[in-house]
Amino acid sequence: MHLRPVALLLLHGEALFEVKPNPKRPFRVYADSTAILALGTQFDVYRQAHGTKVSVLEGQVRVSNENSAQVARLKAGEAANVTAQGEIKPLAEAEAERIVAWRDNKIVFHG
Description:
This protein is mainly beta. It contains 1 helix and 10 strands.
């Protein structure tokens, strides 16, 4: 039996994914021109008007963009913004509490 890769297209908004590692059945999320390949992980994808934010809570993801040859591998605690032009810009350390707060209708403030 041949297993197909699993892919999801995020048209707008934000989604949290928890994916078990399975090299025979990769899981990808597409947000506009950005592609995120899960490498056994928990990660958040937030599609915005000016690009896509990817935050990793557990494991690793591979981030690429069809408008650029740039590729990044993000691990737990890391985040990046991917611009519409395909530039992958690392962000300050990803805070799990703040990343998933939207699921509980919460806003997290610091300072």
